[in-house]
Input
Amino acid sequence: MNAKRRKKRKLKKGAKLLSVLLVFLLVLLSAAVGVHLYLGTILNRMNKTDTMSASDANIVEEVQRKTADTHVFNFLLFGADRNSIEEFSAMERADATKIVSLDMRNKTVKIASLQRDTMVWIPDPVADYSKLNHAYWWGGPDLAVRTVNMNFDMNITKYVTFSMAGVEAIVDEIGGVDIYLTRAESTYFQDGMIKDTGYVEGTFHLNGKEALAYARLREIDNDYNRMNRQTNLIRTIITKLSGSSVSEILAVINAVMPYIETNFTNFEIERWLTRILTYDLRNIETQDVPVDDGKAIRASIEYNGYSPCYVLRDYEKVIKDLYVFLYGMEDYEISPQAWEVQKKLYAKFADEPDLEAS
Output
């Protein structure tokens, strides 16, 4: 009889334990559903566009095959040249064009900054040569994605466009950022009354408006240095966010959503956010494209009334350098599509004077 009672008590204890675990799991599930619904509500504030297929994006099968098993996912990040919340329009330049590369195996992030004045072939409906950033201006993100894929042998169908006004919003939301200013940058800020720097170099705390001025600055040097400043600001923001709580990150996301357009679905965004939280966000690798502007540019010309347009010395090397950086491929051979683009470009601009010869 006692044995039966002890057995019943054990069963009751086991049942209670299972009940507690079940309640705990239900609470966790409810919390997850709540966060999912809340995040979905926030993400719906973004401007959404249709997804692109590989054929839509001008990705050739050879490139798809070579990148299929790399465990690397790339998307394009555009910085739209506008300063207010308004309807997104194709009639705006991509002030910044960056390939954001997520390595799923090593859990790392890389950013490749494409020189916006690089002369490239822009496919239909333009079907002509021009600066890289004109692709976005003339045909929006779809044409810009196709242009990058054709000229740089990329396998990209996803993009995020971030209005420059959003830089102010996100920096102010996280309480500002600490940025090191060189003597030249400090002087520019002081003379332009952007911030009182006392004409000295050093680390300064910048608010949103000041951070945007930093990201857009190129008067003191060139567009390559501006690309580096933009990447430095992105890295600084990500580093600061990596130490934030979930509620703080959600507040930031909520604040910047109206400034973003993307063809990522909500499900894809949530999945990538979950993954990226486990990545090493304090050591983001960066690279300019082309790597060395001084040696990479063959000629700086005017074409169809636009200048400077940079004709590169070796487009093949640019693509191979990009594949080493993004995929670690040392022996990449460019596709026939990229060969054809380069051959026609060289034929058209062969008579332009070489910078070293002039």
